[in-house]
Amino acid sequence: MFKTKFRKTIGTSLIAAACFMSALPASAASVNVSGAKSDDFMIKSFDYVAVDGKDVDSQARVNNNSNIKVTMVLPKQNQKGDMLAYGFTSKVALEAFIEKDKQRLQNKFKTMASGPCCTDFYEYKNKGGQYIYWRDGFKNLPSSWNDRISSLSTASLSSSYSTTLWEHTSTQGYGKGVLFRHSDWYGKTANMASDWDNKASAIEIK
To answer: Could you read off the pLDDT of 29-74 as tens digits, one per residue?
Structure first.
């Protein structure tokens, strides 16, 4: 269920509509829990270590595989700086993986009493500029935020499983998606570059 939330901006009036709002106009560098620099999480290109839940031989790995529809990004890089990732050729394959993965994570993490409920989406890298936030479900972005997201900070792993950016709206068929599992990314900032900077037309938290 979507909820309306309100956040205050410095020097401006309170603005909100279904979890969308203005944020601090000043850009600020993010600090993640691991102490890694923001460049360590710049989403430029992918090195697929598994496709549809099956491991990919190192000699057969292909960057930007044309058959992959959704990419689950891991906060790790290969020696070339490509982000390690799981690829999925369909939403059905992704959902099958998520169901198994949720069971695995239930045994690994204890549910926290409380924690950040929403994913924040920023117009600039390193959580800079204006931002919007969303709690759960799917949302086609309004024209004011279409093709505008450059970085994000996910909700907590106790609140929801993942955040996905979609390149098209639902009426346009979604297109490709890039997914951030909260158990991997909570406390880190994912900066978009190359194919995903200012390209998202829809968001999904589930």
So the answer is: 333 333 455 556 899 899 999 999 888 876 555 554 678 999 999 9
Strand-pair partners of 112:
none
List, edge to edge, every strand of the sheet that includes 42-43. 42-43, 190-192, 151-153, 119-124, 128-134
Beta bridge partners of 122: 131, 151
Q: Report the C-alpha gap between 161 and 81 in whole angstroms.
A: 26
DSSP letter for each residue of the chain = ------BPPTTS--B-BTTB----SS------TT---GGGGEE--EEEEEETTEE--GGG--TT-TT--EEEEEEEE-TTSPEEEEEESSHHHHHHHHHHHHHHHHHHSPPPS-----EEEEEETTTEEEEEEE-SEEEEPPTTTTT---EEEPPPTTT-SEEEEESS-GGGT---EEEEEHHHHTTS-EEE-GGGTT---EEEE-
Cα maximum dimension of the chain? 56
